[in-house]
Amino acid sequence: MDPMEDEKETEAVECCGDDESLHRSEQEHRKRCDELSTVMTDESKRYWSRLYGISGRSVFLDLPGFSVTKCLVHDTMHLLYEGISMAEVKRLLRYCILDKKYFSLSYVNLSMADIGRHLRANCRPNEIDASRLKMADDRLNLTASQLQCTHICFL
User: How far is CA 54 from CA 31, 81, 100, 141, in A?
Assistant: First the structure.
């Protein structure tokens, strides 16, 4: 490897915090699948499933030589539209509406409703709730497909 490329990779790891200890191992994944298959209340199962990011065993676990923690492509819906994009849109809206008052939440909601008239029913964005916008988390009351369609319209 070129020394410059190696230096850039090291910089990227330092910047983005790529820590190998944060990656799920095959053994840990199998253990979590087993835990979810034990008898528990629906509420407990929902809690642990959401925490683990899985809902149970996959048929891929039984394929010889196939690692479910290394051989699957990234899930853009969860990573982007329910993850980083949702967080970034909320932060941008909070900054523009609550902090700087460049425009109002009513204006955003009217604009999204106007865009929504041209979209499929399952993509039409919900009205953004003011109390949800003020919450100290990275969530909005939009689904992944609503956020994706709204992104496409604004691009």
Answer: 12, 18, 39, 22
In the chain, where are the structural domains located?
Answer: 23-72, 76-154
Residue 97 predicted with pLDDT over 50: yes
**The two structure tokens encoding residue 151:** 């992104």
pTM of this prediction? 0.55
Give yes or no for a contact between 147 and 81, defined as CB atoms under 8 angstroms apart. yes
Helices (DSSP H) in 24-141: which residue ranges?
Answer: 26-36, 42-52, 76, 85-93, 105-116, 130-134
Span 10-25, pLDDT tens digits? 554 444 444 444 567 8
CA distance 19 to 16: 9
